[in-house]
Amino acid sequence: MPPRTRGGYTSTAPRRRPTGSERRRRVQLREVEPEHPRHDRDETEEVLEGAPGGPIDRCILRSFHKHVAAKIWLGEDRAPLKLVNHGAKLQLWELDVERSRIYETVQRSGLAPLISCSHQVASRPMLSAFCERWQPETTTFHLPFGEMTITLDDVASILHIPITGSMISFSQPLRVDDANALLVELLGTTDVEASRETEQCRSPSVRLQWLRENFSTITDVSSDDDIDFATRAFLLHLVGCTLFADKSATSVGVVYLELFRDLSMVGSYAWGAACLAFMYRQLTTATRFEVRQLGGYLTLLQAWIYEHFPEMFSSPDMAYIESRPRALRWRPHVIPDSLQSLRERLDRLQSSDVCWEPYVDHRAEHPFPDIAWFSGCIKCGLVVEPYHPERVLRQFGHIQTIPPRPFAPPRPDRSILLDQYWERWTDHVLIDQSRGRRCHYSGESVAEYMAWYDRISHRIVQPPHLRSGFTTDARSSLPSHTASTSDSRNARALRLLRHVISGGRQQSGDYFWGALNEAHSILAGSDETSASHSTPSPAPASHSTPSPATCPFFCPPTFVYPPPASVDPPPASIDPPPAAVDPPPASVAPPAPAAGPTASTTVYVRSKRKKKT
Whole-angstrom Cα distance, residue 87 to residue 115? Predict the structure, then answer.
């Protein structure tokens, strides 16, 4: 047997012992060679340790020195991220009556809700501001009051796709030759067409436009093989536009085509868990300062923000019914605020500003899934990400305690062990002791949680010397009619409209008219009119111990708003504007002529003469 060298490979040549001169030369090199300084992780983190707002204890956020929030605190800035959103492309391939066989297969796969619930508009400043608060070690958003994240319950409620089933696994990256073979076998293309497409993409991928051009014309009258080819192409196009939208913005990986080999088994995969793992990885990549683009299914991220922060960002659709995915509950729109403004708004967030359990009304149609308590790793092919429900217990209605240290995900090549771990998910859910007690009020945490969170987190993103200066403390320096009267009117009108929106479409027309009439009176400054109606008692302003019944938009109203005494004639204080507003100032109006009729009288006479002629 040939000897084995120190490098680990075998050689047939005999091993030669070093001579004395070689040994002396090696000793001299060791003595002369200078010692290079070690750049350990702890020494690198000491550079940012003294920065205000940064984590003091680096045992959790070990890579924070590479985070975009660290660069922002040091004075560097990054523009809003470019977003990869294919919501409009889904409308280019419709499954009408002539393609009913394809639609039936898509419906059995559990992916049919993705066709209708994808948002066509995404807000760059809003998503960029939340991306700056994502921490890869914990896979959570670090906000001023604690951690939050997208859970499996959020995915199931927002998208209505399966979150249980087999994990999506790939043994190794797909090569271009293997991708061409899959296109020929599963889509019926020729070798020349497959090679030309992968060469144009310069990767084992195909363009979304190429899928539409070659397979969108197949109907039910085509052969069975052509219908199967078109079904696989549509499913590949669907997941490429939604769940696995990468930063190429035009193509989708052929590796996902293997999942559609057996069309009867497409519904057996945990698509929701794979989508969540892919979204985690895209957020992690976007936290690096040099990254300028965000991929993943942005409808999931945007709808999650609307659900948990309804007063800040959302625009609800009053025609929504609870049997549909929650992504359809919102009307996506572009936030007019700048990225810096949103940073400051998020820096001022409090626990009482969050709707911790937004799906209370949705439970009748979509019960809470027990797999959301799973604590372990979720994956999408070679992407493996940790999933920590113990860090966001408040989103499950439990008191938040100090969580254990997050675990690092294992290597993707250990996919068999991860699949077995996921298949026995019932053995790896949080036990009752780890879940803790139920909250007495929304957002409750133990007394020592915030002191611990201050040490390990980066709570504030916008540096103090770069803030706009218009904060809560700065409001006291404004004039009294702006700081007190305007704020109080806005707060009263918002509380009133909040109850109107939460009531849904079951209210009568008098109810809506009376509420809008009173909101208009409040904003116009007609306190006499607003005081004449019996307004519902709002929640206390302190929000120290809010109850689940005060959660905005989602909890049913506990009152019946009485219609105003006289609905048809609006109050007299609303129609006529104040006298000081109607006439222009004397310094602005042109001077009147010395003799003859005034300018306004002249215009009136001329108009009457024209009407008579």
Answer: 9
